[in-house]
Amino acid sequence: VRCIAEIVRHFDVIALQEVRDNIRGLRDLMEVLGRDWSMILTDVNRGDAGNGERMAFLFDTRRIQLSGLACELVVPENVLAEVSPDALTKQFARSPYAVGFRTMNTTFVLVTLHILYGNKASDRIPELRAIARWLADWAKRVN
Q1: How many whole angstroms separate alpha carbon 81 and alpha carbon 76?
Q2: pTM higher than the cut 0.90
Q3: How far is CA 70 from the centre of its chain?
Q4: Beta strands, E only, the chain
Q5: 3-state SS, residue 135
Q6: Contact 56, 72 (CB under 8 A)
Q7: Suppose 88 and one of 56, 68, 109, 130 were both cysteines; which one would form an S-S bond, judging by CB atoms 3.0 to 4.6 Å apart?
Q8: Which tens digits make up the pLDDT trace of 7-55?
Q9: So what's the pLDDT on residue 47?
Q10: Cα 86 to chain center, whole Å?
């Protein structure tokens, strides 16, 4: 845990994937990092594809604060209804996790997505295209 803490301390914010249902190890890491560090994480993703995992962000509260936004991204029905070889046909197996942060006068959103690996590279394309499209549409909205 101490070795991981030394790596984490080189960053202001870090995304973690495959955080298991039992977060004892994560709590041990937070204890080693100290009270200047905080975390925000998803609930456990149930089901075979979710593999009982969570996603999390760790951040140094001396430099980064939460802006108030934390959400899991859901694909709109009309996108799921599209027909093409690379179309996403169901919700993300592990919902992308978006969290808003702020530092001084800047607010930004980080998104972490743990895609299904699949048996070949082309198996990953539908989720990657869907998240790229979702983020592009989201970025165009002022609010």
Answers
A1: 9
A2: no
A3: 10
A4: 13-20, 37-41, 53-60, 65-72, 97-103, 106-112
A5: helix
A6: no
A7: 130
A8: 888 889 999 998 988 999 999 999 999 999 999 999 887 766 667 788 9
A9: 67
A10: 22
